[in-house]
Amino acid sequence: MEHINLVETFSEFKEFKNIDRETMMRIIEDVFRHMLIKKYGSDENFNVIVNIDKGDLEIWRNREIVEDGDIEDENKQIAYSEAIKIEPDFEVGEEVSEEIRLMDFGRREILTIRQNLMSKIQEYEKDNIFKKYKEKIGEIITGEVYQVWKKEILVLDDEYIELTLPRSEQIPSDFYRKGDTIRAVVSKVDMRNNTPVIVLSRTSPAFLERLFESEVPEVYDGLITIRNIVRVPGERAKIAVESYDDRIDPVGACVGMKGSRIHGIVRELRNENIDVINFTNNPSLYITRALSPAKISSISINEGEKRADVYMKPDQVSLAIGKGGYNIKLASRLTGYEIDVYRDSDVDNEDVDLQEFSDEIDQWIIDELKAIGCDTARSVLDLSVDELVNRTDLEEETIREVVRILRAEFE
């Protein structure tokens, strides 16, 4: 009965942990053989028979019958007088097989066997999880939020394996509750203290690339190649695509009819603004496309220093820079060039719309100035600091900083 209870216990454990039958049998046999070696000095003359399905375990010791007094190894030999007690027909030189019962090991040894089995199975399971997810690095995983902490989220996959999504790998506007479904890419897999640690990411460019593969069949099939991806998670992303088939418009295919394909990706990324552009080996054209939606008047490239001076009309500068400067930063990272934006020299002395300074002056300040009729840089500079203070609700220090920025435009 103790035999059966022992094996059935770990048979249930096997099914819960999803360890295959052959592996479970091998683990149980290895643990018992280790105990036999410890108890008898060798396991060479033992047969260990494990049947996981039935919950059966049998251990048989095989010994050669020798004349009384001729025993050299009690583990491998048995005296004739002892052998005929088992079976009267035995003769010297024959082999005797005896069953070793679990109770023959003793309580302490049985406890050790249980502990070793548990340890071996857990070790195998951990190694299996590590190998499985090591092969999944860069793939999207769908899981369920199990616990939400300040610095990370604990996620369970469909096999109840624990995955971690650190705060640093979450999109800033991500918000999850326990039980929510979450999608992320496997970013890193490590072994810490003999335990696999699987780290997920929603900010990795690989996550955006996998999303395009799932939404755009041409990308999945290799008809469209993603050459580069850069992101400011939750804010903006730029992706350069290329097709070797002239019949395929890579940008159109990625965006889809009326944005049907890209819409799901944008929603998954918390309304991240995604710019899809055609890749080209022409640096000037590549930079021009990367700065979209701004329109460039001219461009000067220094290949040695990997720098590009871009000139454009004043009303295009704020578009090139973008909200928070994300557009120009991402364009630089996408193309590999340090990009500097300049207003065309032929309009340097003209007035500039106040809105063009939104990258340097807060919008609420611009709105305050517009409220008193100052829509352009020169209309603000035409008024004294005191007059601006009296006519607006702005602090003098704020107005002096605005004046400094506007004057720099015309110097």
Short description:
The protein has 15 helices and 15 strands. With 411 residues, it is of the alpha+beta class.
Q: What is the fold's blueprint, element by element?
A:
Elements: H1 2-17, H2 21-40, E1 46-51, E2 56-66, E3 77-79, H3 80-86, E4 95-99, H4 107-134, E5 140-148, E6 152-156, E7 162-166, E8 181-192, E9 195-201, H5 205-215, H6 217-220, E10 224-232, E11 236-243, H7 250-255, H8 260-268, E12 273-278, H9 283-290, E13 298-302, E14 307-312, H10 314-321, H11 326-335, E15 338-343, H12 363-370, H13 377-381, H14 385-391, H15 396-410
Parallel strand pairs: 2-3, 11-12, 14-15
Antiparallel strand pairs: 1-2, 2-4, 5-6, 5-8, 6-7, 8-9, 10-11, 13-14
Give an overview of the whole structure.
By secondary structure, the protein is of the alpha+beta class. It has 4 domains: 2-131, N Utilization Substance Protein A, Chain:P, domain 4, CATH 3.30.1480; 136-201, Beta Barrel (OB fold (Dihydrolipoamide Acetyltransferase, E2P)), CATH 2.40.50; 282-344, GMP Synthetase, Chain A, domain 3, CATH 3.30.300; 354-410, DNA polymerase, domain 1 (Orthogonal Bundle), CATH 1.10.150. It has 15 helices and 15 strands. The chain has helices spanning 2-17, 21-40, 80-86, 107-134, 205-215, 217-220, 250-255, 260-268, 283-290, 314-321, 326-335, 363-370, 377-381, 385-391, 396-410, and strands at residues 46-51, 56-66, 77-79, 95-99, 140-148, 152-156, 162-166, 181-192, 195-201, 224-232, 236-243, 273-278, 298-302, 307-312, 338-343. A hairpin with a 4-residue loop joins strand 13 and strand 14. The radius of gyration is 37 Å and the shape is elongated. The chain starts with a helix and ends with a helix.
